[in-house]
Specification:
The protein is an alpha/beta fold. It has one domain: Uracil-DNA glycosylase-like domain (Uracil-DNA Glycosylase, subunit E, 3-Layer(aba) Sandwich), CATH 3.40.470.10. The chain is about 40% helix and about 10% strand. The protein has a five-stranded mixed β-sheet with strand order 2-1-3-5-4. A hairpin with a 3-residue loop joins strand 4 and strand 5. The radius of gyration is 17 Å and the shape is globular. The two termini are about 20 Å apart. The model has no long low-confidence stretch (mean pLDDT about 95).
Length: about 230
């Protein structure tokens, strides 16, 4: 078993944040009416994608009735529909939708992770929960050795990535990159960091984030990857 798989097994068994453990398990027991006949995952969500990926996507956390139900982040909710359509159009996913973790979707040259691995109440993790989970992201950055581009979905994910980057022993450019939709910064070592609004319903249904705006971020990532050779 490779180091990334061992790490994901550790993540799935984590119980370090009592508030998150209580909430994710309560949601899995009580469910909602439309999913009452489904068995919820109710545990931390592992990251997924090939370990040779050149693109890393950092989300916020699994949705209570999305990833916390299906066992795969961005799977089974509308945010995921937005994300996988964008990936599919750039040749980074095998299909433009994801319903459950065994639906045949494959990521190509792309790895998806999150700042927090358990569904938080109100989609708002506490600072100490972000800090506890950051060690997992830090380890992933050390293991994903072919990364060329990182897309952070939302300000919290953007900040979580930068902190994990620094804690992994990587220098940060000065001035420190600032989040914004469509922001772009080059980190030491040639990694390009792109910022995007999160494809939450709050953003997509209010018009703050359109499909075209979102797609442009992924098109830029595709161009950066294509012009940079894979490291040996």
């Amino acid at each position: 078993m490779n180091a990334l798989r061992i790490l994901q097994a550790t993540i799935v068994n984590c119980r370090r944040c009592p508030r998150l453990v209580s909430y994710r398990e309560q949601v899995a027991r009580e469910k909602v009416r439309r999913y009452r006949d489904e068995e919820y995952w109710g545990r931390p969500i592992p990251s997924w994608g090939p370990r040779t990926a050149r693109l890393l996507i950092v989300g916020l956390a699994p949705a209570a009735h999305g990833g916390n139900r299906t066992g795969r982040i961005f799977t089974g909710d509308r945010s995921g529909d937005f994300l996988f359509r964008a990936l599919y159009r750039e040749g980074l996913a095998s299909q433009p939708w994801s319903r459950h973790r065994r639906d045949g979707l494959r990521l190509r040259d792309c790895y998806i992770t999150a700042a927090v691995r358990c569904a938080p109440p109100g989609n708002k993790p506490l600072p100490e929960e972000l800090s506890t989970c950051r060690q997992f992201l830090m380890q992933e950055l050390q293991l994903l050795r072919r990364l060329r581009v990182v897309i952070a979905l939302g300000r919290i994910a953007f900040d979580a990535f930068l902190r994990a980057w620094a804690e992994a022993g990587r220098p940060l450019p000065q001035p420190r990159p600032r989040f914004g939709h469509g922001s772009m910064a080059e980190l030491p070592g040639g990694i390009v960091l792109l910022g995007s609004y999160h494809p939450s319903q709050q953003n997509t249904q209010t018009g703050r984030l359109s499909a075209a705006m979102f797609q442009r971020v992924f098109s830029r990532a595709r161009r950066v990857i294509d012009r940079r050779p894979r490291p040996g």
